[in-house]
Specification:
Elements (H helix, E strand, L loop, with lengths): L6 E5 L3 H12 L3 E5 L3 H20 L7 H6 L1 E4 L2 H5 L4 E4 L5 H14 L5 E4 L6 H5 L8 E6 L8 E6 L5 H13 L3 E5 L8 H17 L5 H11 L6 H8 L1 H10 L6 H9 L23
Parallel strand pairs: 1-2, 1-4, 2-3, 4-5, 5-6, 7-8
Antiparallel strand pairs: 6-7
Helix pairs in contact: 1-2, 8-10
Bound molecules: 3-hydroxybutanoyl-coenzyme A.
The site of 3-hydroxybutanoyl-coenzyme A has 17 residues, from helix 2, helix 8 and helix 10.
Protein name: enoyl-CoA hydratase
Family: Belongs to the enoyl-CoA hydratase/isomerase family. In the N-terminal section; belongs to the enoyl-CoA hydratase/isomerase family.
């Protein structure tokens, strides 16, 4: 029998979590958006509101933004957030201990047959799922930043994940009008980040060696190769701190041009400075 997904909880209201909740609400799902403090969850909710208005302004939303927003509710208590969920998507910071503790809590509080998915970009699904008594119902659902604009989602099963759970996750992603790809093996960083992280890293090492400059490399990739962003702009966009943490987690070296900026707090767009300056400061064009 097919697994039905009607109700959804997203844990973590940061850039990925609130974006995933927005995408699900746009597709007609009722979503509970949860974070550990009122301010955090409110900020995520406000960003959804900003994004929906922006999309509507540009004619990129086929619905009334108020109706979409009306499908998003907020919570701080994890138990209440997941009590009725068919699917829980965890979008907490990229730390194995933290994700395991969230998974263990969800395992206790969510219905027995709920699927628990993680938006991890770099950790193994099996390692996170090991904190639960239902590894067969755990999977990876890796969205890209910003979820509302990026079409691709990686769907990943751990060794213990049941096939029908991976199928249900895949179909759920399709129901969001996104394009899922099934990652064949539960390897750290899956497909895209295994390619993307070294690409951004190599650009940083080139800079360390004085081989080229930031603007020239980005311009070559954008205007000659047709990428939407060059490696430095993309790293600013995702956060240099996130990049450095991912590399360190797997003992991969971090270019000096990146670690020195992280040390100085210039972690990219969200900080107002990274490889580039962002005049409009934290949150860039979000008001
Ligand atoms: N909601 C609504 N509008 C948004 C938005 C959002 N979440 N984010 C940005 N916008 C708006 C901007 O405010 C801007 O509005 P303006 O035109 O009024 O100033 C507009 O979108 C920008 O639109 P553009 O037409 O300039 O650009 P596109 O819409 O064509 O593309 C983009 C924007 C999709 C972000 C594109 O630049 C892109 O694809 N960049 C690369 C992103 C990428 O590679 N992401 C993956 C990173 S890796 C990752 O996420 C993995 C993770 O696990 C680490």
């Amino acid at each position: 029998m097919d697994i039905e997904i009607d109700s959804l909880a997203v844990l973590g209201a940061g850039s990925m979590g609130h974006g995933i909740a927005e995408v699900a609400a746009m597709a007609g799902y009722d979503v509970v958006l949860r974070d550990v403090e009122d301010d955090l969850v409110q900020d995520g909710y406000d960003q959804i509101e900003w994004s929906l208005d922006k999309l509507a302004e540009k004619g990129q939303l086929d619905a009334d933004p108020e109706d979409v927003l009306g499908r998003v509710s907020t919570a701080v208590e994890l138990e209440a957030a997941v009590a009725d969920a068919d699917l829980v998507i965890e979008a907490a910071p990229e730390d194995l201990d933290l994700k395991q503790s969230v998974f263990a809590e969800v395992d206790e509080a969510a219905p027995d047959d709920a699927i628990i998915a993680t938006n991890t970009s770099s950790l193994r699904i099996g390692d996170i799922a090991a904190a639960t008594d239902r590894p067969e119902r755990c999977c990876g659902m890796h969205f890209f930043n910003p979820p509302v604009k990026m079409d691709l989602v990686e769907v990943v099963g751990g060794e213990a994940t049941a096939d029908d759970v991976v199928d249900a996750a895949y179909e759920f992603v399709e129901s969001l009008d996104k394009t899922p790809i099934r990652v064949r093996k539960d390897v750290p960083q899956f497909v895209v980040n295994n390619v993307l992280t070294p690409y951004m890293g190599e650009a940083g090492f080139m800079l360390d060696e004085g081989a080229d400059d930031v603007r020239a490399v980005d311009a070559a990739m954008v205007f000659r190769r047709g990428y939407p962003m060059g490696p430095f702009e993309l790293n600013d966009f995702g956060g240099l701190d996130v990049f450095a943490h991912t590399r360190e987690q797997w003992d991969d070296p971090v270019p000096e041009s990146i670690s020195s900026r992280v040390e100085a707090g210039d972690v990219g767009r969200k900080a107002g400075a990274g490889f580039y300056e962002y005049e409009d400061g934290p949150g860039a064009d979000y008001e």
